[in-house]
Design goal:
By secondary structure, the protein is of the alpha/beta class. Helices cover about 60% and strands about 10% of the residues. The chain folds into two domains: about 325 residues, ABC transporter transmembrane region fold, CATH 1.20.1560.10; about 240 residues, Rossmann fold, CATH 3.40.50. The protein contains 20 helices and ten strands. The strands form two sheets. Strands 6-7-8-3-9-10 form a six-stranded mixed sheet, with helices on both faces. Strands 2-1-4-5 form a four-stranded antiparallel sheet, with helices on one face. α18 links the parallel β7 and β8.
Length: about 600
């Protein structure tokens, strides 16, 4: 179980993050004490002012004005100290949330692809953004209201004991009822808030999925079905939210009722004592002035108010803990197996790639590749063909070490890739995939992604080699044209040409082309194939292809079926054998 799965574990982890700003905590505590002290002293001044205006012809106007002037100054200082305290609390809270988000994103970058493949992107986004925001709200309430609330309770109780211990005892006996009620409710709302967070993540993930695939939804007229599925997710989110909020909101009216009872009790006992006779022999009731009664009522109100706020903080904190647990679960995920301590930097000299008895499966109970052995020599063009699901893309993932083999080994220039750093291995490959990716930056910056130090002239030269220059120049800002998220303003073919230009610019010693020309028209594809042929000279190249016409001149064709290489050879040789490759080829070119 991850550390963040329990409330106590989550709280300890959150406190560790807060500990980084421990120097600010005494400062905020100091201003909280000053704020509470001044707030508690003001009712004393008001009570003194009332005592100066009681009785006909006994009003001391000068004394009243002096007291009110002092009260006004103290109120201004209270507001200033409270603003400073809130500013410091905001700084601590949002720096803590920033650190947690940074750790979550850093962990996301180090997670294996298996995690990314098995978790909806919307859920991960929800954890890093929404759950962290909920945590911020809970921490801010905790810093601002919990600290001042506790100080107010202690301070007002002490003053009331000094003014009249009987009234203080009444208040002390009645008010803890609200805390017991709040604790009872809060202990039952934690799981409700956790279910709400999970439902919110599911809805967010579904929205992201539909937005990203809106064309597919419309093409297959799935609008109604998508709406129905979202309605179900939204209804579940609404039900969980309503249940959590309903039970958590019970604390406010209940504690307010208790507070009203306390206030009424103070008023009753105080009024009786204010109008009672002087002490009788053996009596225990002492007279209090009207000003003291007013002060006691004010303190009773101040004493009970924090209980109401603290109960709200406790309830909100359950939500914050539930959300913190989810984001800490992400941070606690097992990262990608790190490079070995003695891992070396791979410097590709020739580009010989060997697969020795390689086995791999995404799940232990479903083997995919078993006993695969093949040698790709320096400068060879190796084509990988076969039906969908036979393991072509999986083989590419293993070559790039996006996944590690479960058996056997993969060697580059005689070095086992598990003994070299991933960074140096991947820098040795240039990759063009069927699924393109562009960052929300200029076209020039997207091409320069693989080689940031390249000059503008080199970028343009690579674009010309990829046959992308002509369409780029027709854009409004040419190479400085900004592409939106995913490059949606460009056609699929244009996006792919930019990705090809990116590899043309870096020219690594080994290439992987996974259906690199699938979104390009036939005429442009012929030009690209010529550019590829020039780029492939002297470079070991792996080409994944469905259209067999594009790999007929490959030096070696690997024919895969059910995770195994069933045939191997050149195009002409494989056709002469009349085996599986021949049937694939004839199925594509049969009239």
């Amino acid at each position: 179980m991850a550390k963040g799965n329990t409330k106590s574990g989550t709280l300890k982890r959150a406190l560790c993050y807060i500990g980084k700003y421990k120097l600010l905590l005494p400062v905020t505590a100091l201003f909280a004490i000053l704020t509470v002290a001044l707030t508690l002293y003001i009712p004393v001044l008001v009570g003194d002012a009332l005592d100066l205006i009681i009785g006909e012809g006994l009003v001391d106007l000068g004394g009243v004005l002096k007291i009110l002037s002092l009260a006004a100054i103290l109120i201004g200082l209270t507001a200033l100290f409270q603003w400073i305290m809130s500013t410091i609390n905001n700084r601590i809270t949002f720096h803590v949330v920033r650190d947690i988000r940074n750790d979550a994103f850093r962990k996301l970058e180090s997670l294996p692809l298996s995690y990314v493949d098995s978790h909806p992107s919307g859920e991960v986004v929800n954890r890093i953004i929404n759950d962290a925001e909920q945590l911020a709200d809970g921490l801010l309430l905790g810093f601002t209201q919990l600290l001042t609330g506790v100080l107010t309770i202690v301070g007002t109780l002490g003053i009331m004991l000094y003014l009249n211990w009987i009234v203080a005892l009444v208040v002390f006996i009645l008010t803890p009822m609200s805390l017991f009620i709040a604790k009872f409710i809060a202990s039952r709302t934690y799981n409700m808030f956790r279910m709400r967070a999970e439902s919110e993540a599911a809805a967010t993930s579904y929205i992201g999925e539909i937005i990203g695939n809106q064309k597919i939804v419309k093409a297959f007229c799935r609008e109604n079905e998508a709406q129905e599925e979202f309605d179900a997710l939204n209804d579940r989110l609404g039900a969980h939210s309503l249940r959590a909020i309903f039970f958590s909101s019970l604390t406010n009216p209940v504690t307010r009722f208790v507070n009203s009872v306390v206030y009424a009790a103070v008023a009753l006992f105080g009024a009786i004592m204010a109008v009672s006779n002087p002490l009788k022999e053996g009596g225990i009731v002492a007279l209090i002035s009207v000003g003291e009664l007013a002060a006691l009522l004010s303190y009773a109100n101040q004493y009970t108010k924090p209980f109401n706020e603290i109960s709200g903080v406790v309830t909100e904190f359950q939500n914050a803990l539930a959300c913190a647990a989810r984001i800490l679960e992400l941070i606690d995920e097992e990262p990608e197996i790190p490079d070995a301590p003695d891992a070396v930097e791979l410097s590709v000299r020739e580009g010989n790639v060997s697969l020795r008895d390689v086995s791999f499966s995404y799940t232990p109970d479903r083997p995919l590749i078993e006993g695969l052995s093949v040698d790709a020599l320096s400068g060879q063009r190796v084509a990988i063909v076969g039906p969908t699901g036979c393991g072509k893309t999986t083989l590419i993932n293993l070559l790039m070490r996006f996944y590690d083999v479960t058996g056997g080994s993969i060697l580059v220039d005689g070095e086992d890739i598990r003994g070299v750093t991933r960074r140096s291995l991947r820098q040795g490959y240039g990759m063009v995939l069927q699924e393109t990716w562009l960052s929300p930056a200029s076209i020039k910056e997207n091409i320069r992604l693989g080689r940031p130090e390249a000059t503008d002239e080199e970028v343009i030269s690579a674009a010309k080699a990829a046959h992308a220059h002509s369409f780029i120049k027709r854009l409004k800002d040419g190479y400085d044209t900004l592409v939106g998220e995913g490059g949606e303003e460009l056609s699929a073919g244009q996006r792919q040409l930019i990705c090809i230009a990116r590899v043309m610019l870096s020219l690594p010693p080994m290439l992987i082309l996974d259906e690199a020309t699938s979104s390009i028209d036939t005429r442009t594809e012929i030009k690209i194939q010529r550019a590829f042929a020039k780029m492939m000279e002297g470079r070991t190249t792996f080409v994944v292809a469905h259209r067999l016409s594009t790999i007929m001149d490959a030096d070696l064709i690997l024919v895969m079926r059910d995770g195994n290489i069933v045939e191997m050879g050149r195009h002409g040789e494989l056709l002469e054998r009349g085996g599986f490759y021949s049937s694939l080829y004839n199925s594509q070119f049969a009239h």
